[in-house]
UniProtKB/TrEMBL annotation:
This is G protein-activated inward rectifier potassium channel 2. It comes from the Eukaryota. The keyword Cytoplasm does not apply. Residues 199-369 form the Inward rectifier potassium channel C-terminal domain. It catalyses: K(+)(in) = K(+)(out). The keyword Secreted does not apply. Keywords: Ion channel, Ion transport, Membrane, Phosphoprotein, Potassium, Potassium transport, Transmembrane, Transmembrane helix, Transport, Voltage-gated channel. GO terms for molecular function: G-protein activated inward rectifier potassium channel activity. InterPro entries: Ig_E-set, IRK_C, K_chnl_inward-rec_Kir, K_chnl_inward-rec_Kir3.2, K_chnl_inward-rec_Kir_cyto, Kir_TM. Belongs to the inward rectifier-type potassium channel (TC 1.A.2.1) family. KCNJ6 subfamily. The record marks N178 as: Role in the control of polyamine-mediated channel gating and in the blocking by intracellular magnesium. Residues 53-192 form the Potassium channel inwardly rectifying transmembrane domain. It is found in: Membrane.
Length: 417
């Protein structure tokens, strides 16, 4: 297993390569046979980038071999809401149609059992439902009853207790079906998923120096004039890893600080903002240089959350950046300009970046170089202060000794006198 880890990067172990055709039975996908170095390089070059979260925010994860499928039926309301529109509309029409057919059959059965169908046109016979002469008319009466249309042509009489009971049952069940299906459709229509379509992320993330420190940055913006209330941003690094004990963790998630300790992760998203992750000792990019970044197989998932101002419902927009989309030594072009009495945002430059002078070393190496650059100055100042203090002490000691010698001489002269 150690040979495998050294041959393939952690992310490559989680994605099965077509070049590897033999593997031991009942082993996980990460347990590959040891490959020659040239073959590994070819696999890495030809392998397609596998995202955990796509650029449109959809998660690239499929759930398979789910044995406890009954759990979906337990939460049937959420299951219906999560269905695609074509299935949702099909179930909507199917539920109403089946309900009308079942109760229509019940009305026809009552008329058949009572003999109403045998006395059609007999004015001396009081049927359960007037003008009900077959299954089609019973089906129409069922629709009129459940939808409370009431055309007035077919009407129930007071000589049919079983019909009155069926009318009560259909009225109650019809109200429940209406509430359930209309509520499901309303929730699906008012879902804030489409609101996330107007929340945009920059196509690339950049790494450059800001205030003397290396920072990883990306830009977010809102295309609508209505704001996202209580907007907050999070970022996670998705990268497979292996522990010291040899345990392999595929697609391990690591939090990236984008300001949650300072409050900068809470956004007032009126104009596009540049989200900054400072690469310090707690950052997963602390020891990654520009050359190392090109070899890394990682993904950064960014999540923007907030409440829709119009509806008050929570909205979430997602995007991701793979290694090829992280540009080292670049900054974003400004998009905000001051016009006559207002600020204008130029979204044509939202994704534009420009190159800037950035060291290619890692943040740790940059911090060490800055520390070494400050050491001579610190040492010289301290040595000068120490030297000055020593001189002052020596001068004070000489003055005190001179005064002491003068006092002794005065005493001796007085004693002689």
């Amino acid at each position: 297993m150690s040979k495998i880890v050294s041959a393939l990067s952690p992310m490559e172990q989680d994605v099965e390569s077509p070049a590897v055709t033999t593997r031991k039975p009942k082993l996980p996908k990460q347990a590959r046979e040891d490959l020659p170095k040239q073959l590994v390089d070819q696999v890495r070059a030809k392998r397609k980038i596998q995202r955990y979260v796509r650029k449109d925010g959809k998660c690239n994860v499929h759930h398979g071999n789910v044995q406890e499928t009954y759990r979906y039926l337990t939460d049937i309301f959420t299951t219906l809401v999560d269905l695609k529109w074509r299935f949702n509309l099909f179930i909507f029409v199917l539920v109403y149609t089946v309900t009308w057919l079942l109760f229509g059959f019940a009305w026809w059965l009552i008329a058949y059992v009572r003999g109403d169908l045998e006395h059609i046109g007999d004015n001396q016979w009081t049927p359960c439902v007037n003008n009900l002469n077959g299954f089609v008319s019973a089906f129409l009466f069922s629709i009129e009853t459940e939808t409370t249309i009431g055309y007035g042509y077919r009407v129930i009489t007071d000589q049919c207790p079983e019909g009155i009971l069926l009318l009560l049952i259909q009225s109650v069940l019809g109200s429940i079906v209406n509430a359930f299906m209309v509520g499901c459709m309303f929730v699906k229509i008012s879902q804030p998923k489409k609101r996330a379509e107007t929340l945009v992320f920059s196509t690339s993330a950049v790494i450059s120096v800001r205030d003397g420190r290396l920072c990883l940055m990306f830009r977010v913006g809102d295309l609508r004039n209505s704001h996202i209330v209580e907007a907050s941003i999070r970022a996670k690094l998705i990268k497979s890893k292996q522990t010291k004990e040899g345990e392999f963790i595929p697609l391990n998630q690591t939090d990236m600080n984008v300001g949650y300790d300072t409050g900068d992760d809470r956004l007032f998203l009126v104009s596009p903002l540049i989200i900054c992750h400072e690469i310090n000792q707690n950052s997963p990019f602390w020891e990654i240089s520009q050359a190392d970044l090109d070899k890394e197989d990682l993904e950064i998932v960014v999540i923007l959350e907030g409440m829709v101002e119009a509806t008050g419902m929570t909205c979430q927009a997602r995007s991701s950046y793979v290694t090829s989309e992280i540009k080292w030594g670049y900054r974003f072009m400004p998009v905000l300009t001051l016009e006559d009495g207002f600020y204008e945002v130029d979204y044509n430059s939202f994704h534009d970046i420009h190159e800037t002078n950035t060291p290619s070393c890692s943040a740790r190496e940059l911090a060490e170089m800055n520390c070494r650059a400050r050491l001579p100055l610190t040492w010289s100042v301290a040595s000068k202060l120490s030297h000055t203090t020593t001189l002052i002490t020596q001068e004070e000691g000489l003055e005190e000794q001179t005064e002491r010698n003068g006092d002794i001489a005065n005493i001796e002269s007085e004693s002689k006198v």
